[in-house]
Specification:
The protein has 186 residues and is mainly alpha-helical. The chain folds into 2 domains: 39 residues; 144 residues, no CATH class. It has 6 helices and 5 strands. The strands form 2 sheets. Strands 3-5-4 form a 3-stranded antiparallel β-sheet. It has a two-stranded antiparallel ribbon with strand order 1-2. The chain is globular, with a radius of gyration of 21 Å. The N and C termini lie far apart (74 Å).
Length: 186
């Protein structure tokens, strides 16, 4: 037994030093090579600082809405709801989100609502929605702002991010960037 415990303790200590120290310093060093020095992608608009890689809360009908957040968009406590898809509390929350969406977007069929607009992401801070999620909100935003739907569809297309290297992920729209571009249309 002694012959197994000592190597296990040594491996644990080596892994502890490597992953808590050396690996962390390597990642920090690589982050320092970016423009924001590892502090995320910062957008300054009208004197306010926003993080483009953290979901923002938009509830006004003149803006495109973000994906729901299980942590109310608090970046200090990223987390999901940890409730399974059959959990009654979770289902109640999703139904409430669907009802709220339908109130603010009349004329939309319940079946047409993309799931990303009524379910929170794993971290609760996803800054992106699907292209379908943005497109289904165009009618509401166009009506409230008095802008043509075709102009907004074009704005959505301009703010659509392609999959990484054309292979990984899906097309998506950063809601903060889209709403900033929307404000610039005035």
């Amino acid at each position: 037994m002694k012959e197994h415990i000592l190597p296990a303790i040594r491996l644990t200590l080596v892994c502890l030093v490597f992953f808590c120290g050396i690996y962390t310093l390597i990642v920090l060093g690589i982050a320092q090579l970016t423009n924001s020095k590892g502090k995320g992608e910062i957008i300054i608009e009208n004197g306010k600082k926003y993080y483009a890689n953290v979901g923002q809360k938009f509830t006004n009908d003149e803006y495109f809405r973000s994906r729901p957040s299980a942590v109310d968009y608090n970046a200090a406590g990223a987390a999901g709801s940890n409730k399974g898809p059959a959990n009654p509390d979770y289902l109640k929350t999703v139904r409430q989100r669907i009802d709220t969406f339908l109130i603010h977007n009349p004329g939309i069929d319940k079946a047409d609502i993309p799931s990303d607009l009524v379910t929170a992401s794993g971290a609760g801070l996803d800054p992106h929605i699907s292209v379908q999620g943005a497109s289904i909100q165009v009618k509401r935003v166009a009506h409230v702002r008095g802008i043509s739907e075709s102009q907004l569809q074009q704005l959505v297309a301009q703010n659509t991010e392609k999959p990484l290297l054309g292979l990984f992920g899906t097309e998506r729209v950063n809601v903060l960037r889209l709403n900033i571009a929307l404000d610039k249309l005035k």
